[in-house]
Amino acid sequence: MKNVWMLNHYAIAPNESGGTRHFSLSRHLRDYGWESSIVAASIEHDNGKQRLETGRKWRIDFHDGVRFLWLRTPPYRGNGGGRMMNMLAYCLRACQHASTRDLPRPDVIIGSSVHPFAAVSGAFLARRFGVPFIFEVRDLWPQTLIDLGRLEQNSGMAKVMRKIELWLYQRAARIVVLLPGAGDYIEPLGIDRHKIIWLPNGVELEGAKVPEPAANDDEFIVMYFGAHGTANGIENILRAFAILEKRAGTEGIVLQLIGDGPAKPTLMELANDLQLKRVTFKPPVPKSQIPTLAEKADAFVFNLIAAPVFKYGISSNKLFDYLAAARPIIFCSDAANNPIDEARAGVTVPPDSPQALADAIVQLAAIPADQRAQMGRAGRKYVEAKHSYQQLARELAAILDDVADSNK
C-alpha cells in the first residue's frame, strides 16, 4: 500500500458540517492501492471550535479507516488578522518534524489551497522526503480575493501571493484543479497545460438509494444548505422571498436556510428588516446527515454573486449534494459551467436579480409534481455518471500512480 499525505487546512471529519472531499476520496483510494493521511488544523473554520484538548499540540484520529492529523492552531473569527495567524501557525506546525513523525512515510504529497500557504508546506515536505508534490487548486488565490473585492489588484499582498502562486505551479509535478476553466488562468502564466488536470468535487453515492419525491402536502419547501458567506449572495434569496411573500397564491412556499458562515448574523437581521414570515434559519448539520435533510426539500436554490472569477467555472460541494437528492434546482449564477442546464435538472436565472429568482420559484412550484420529479431524476443520473467519489478516487489514484512511478 502506497501513502499520500493531503495537506488541507480546513479539512473536516464526516461527523462535522462542510465539504468532505478529501475524506471521501481517501475512503475509496484504498481500493486502488493508496492510503491517505489528511493533515488539517485543529480549529473548525465555520464556528471557531477547538478540536484539541488543552496542552495537546496534535492528535491523530481515524474516521472509517481514514487517518486525520489535527495540528494545533490559534482560534479566530472572520477574515482578519486572526485568520492569517491561524494560517501561518498551521503551515509552520505542518513543517515541524515532530508534528508528522507518527504518519507513514509518504510516496506523494498533495498541498491543497483554499489559501496557498498550506500548499507551500506541502511543497517543502515533498522536498524533504524526496517525493512528488501535487498542487490542488480549489480557489484561485489571490485572484478570487481580488474579484470579490477583498484585495487590491496591485497591493503588496497581491504581488507576494502571485509570486507564491507561480512558485507552486512551477514546483508541482501535477496541478489538480476543481474549476473546469482554471487551466485558462494557469497556462498563460507559463505553465505546461499537460500538468493541469481537472478533478471536480463529487458526492458519496455508495449504497445510497434514489430519494422519493418529497411528501409536503401543505408546503413547498425551497431549501438552501451550505456556507453563508459573501460569495454565496444569500441576500438575493431573501429579497426574492420579500417579493414572493407579497404575491397572492404563494402562501405555501417557504424557505429553509441551513448552515453557518460570517454573513449569517447580517442575513438574519435583513430577514427581520424585510419582515419575512416564511424564512427559517437553521444550524449546520454533519455531512453524514445531508441526504436525510435533503429529502425534506421540494426544490433547492443555488446562488452566487456575479464575480469575474466565476468565468473559470465552479465546483460547489452543495450543488452535487442537491443533484444527488433528486430534486429540481434553481441555478442562480452566471458561472462558466452550468451543471443544472447540462443535466436538465432545473431552471437557470441571472444572479443578483431578486425578481427573476422570485418568478422562477413561483413557476417551479406551479408545474406538475411529475415534471419536477423528472428534473430531479435527471440530476441524479447526471451526478451518478460524472461526480461519484468512487469514480473520482480512481482518477486521482491514476494521477498518484503516474507521479510516483516517475519518481522511481
From TrEMBL:
Pfam families: Glyco_trans_1_4 (PF13692), Glyco_trans_4_4 (PF13579). Residues 24-202 form the Glycosyltransferase subfamily 4-like N-terminal domain. Keywords: Transferase. One of its GO terms (molecular function) is glycosyltransferase activity. SUPFAM superfamilies: UDP-Glycosyltransferase/glycogen phosphorylase. InterPro entries: Glyco_trans_4-like_N. This is Glycosyltransferase WbuB.
